[in-house]
Design a protein that fits this description.
mainly alpha
């Protein structure tokens, strides 16, 4: 019912949106983890909801600073959660495609790079759907742009800190990030990955 309400632009409950976001993103995470299999499936299924909802929790205060003139805190949270919920539902819809690539891709440096780009592209496509909904709700280019920048900046680094999402070692990687995750950043990693495809 919550997914149906999201798609029809009705007002779903907060609990329903949280549940839909958690389950949908967990399915997407499990599909990503199937590249390695075993415990990596569980690791990514847990990390993906933490990534989406944790990013919202961290960035909510900054979002409301920009929205306080136009929205109450509850309205800010509702709009932000609806955006994240729809993003997660689209990611869940992409899970079968991601699983197909993850399960059939050979474990190699090239396969690893392709899956990293697939993961990034899938999250971006889902994010576009969420942002389109956000803009239709806020009806403010300034506010929408500010929220996207805040969430994207926070989320990119959150994703970096929670890595690995795709294990290039063909073994179950750790669940909790180690100290080296504090080195570098998401943007540097994407550029390096793209350049690696052509080297």
């Amino acid at each position: 019912m919550t997914v149906h309400a999201l798609l029809l632009r009705r007002e779903p409950s907060v609990a329903g949106m949280l549940a839909a976001a958690a389950v949908s993103s967990a399915c997407f995470g499990a599909a990503v983890g199937s590249y390695t299999g075993r415990f990596q499936i569980l690791y990514d299924a847990v990390k993906m909801p933490v990534y989406l909802l944790g990013t919202l929790a961290i960035s909510f205060a900054a979002m409301h600073v920009f929205a306080a003139r136009d929205l109450r805190a509850g309205e800010t949270f509702g709009a932000a959660l609806e955006t994240v919920g729809l993003t997660a539902v689209v990611m869940g819809a992409l899970s079968p495609l991601v699983w197909l690539f993850s399960a059939s891709m050979p474990v190699s440096q090239q396969g690893y790079r392709i899956l990293i780009l697939l993961l990034t592209g899938s999250v971006a496509a889902a994010g576009i759907a969420g942002v389109a909904r956000l803009h239709s709700r806020l009806r403010s280019v300034r506010l929408t742009a500010a929220w996207v920048l805040i969430y994207q900046f926070t989320g990119a680094q959150m994703g970096w800190l929670l890595k690995p999402w795709v294990s290039h070692t063909a073994r179950d990687d750790r669940f909790l990030p180690l100290r080296q995750n504090l080195e570098g950043n998401f943007y540097e990693s994407v550029i390096t990955t793209i350049l690696g495809l052509f080297s």
